Amino acid sequence: MATNGLSSALTLYGARTLTLSQAAAQAGLSEAEFIEQLERRGIEVTDSERAAALGSERPARAD
């Protein structure tokens, strides 16, 4: 993981210049991993982006 890319992505997401998925891609992380990095630094993740990111990584239910 490139620290420079992560730092830049965190800053740009925090300023709402990039979306969560754009910032995660810039950092070279999955959206779930990027959310973990944001939470560690106290950067707020919007509920809609969190739901979209984590919902897309959950396995489909067969019921």
From TrEMBL:
InterPro entries: DUF7317. It comes from the Archaea. This is Uncharacterized protein.
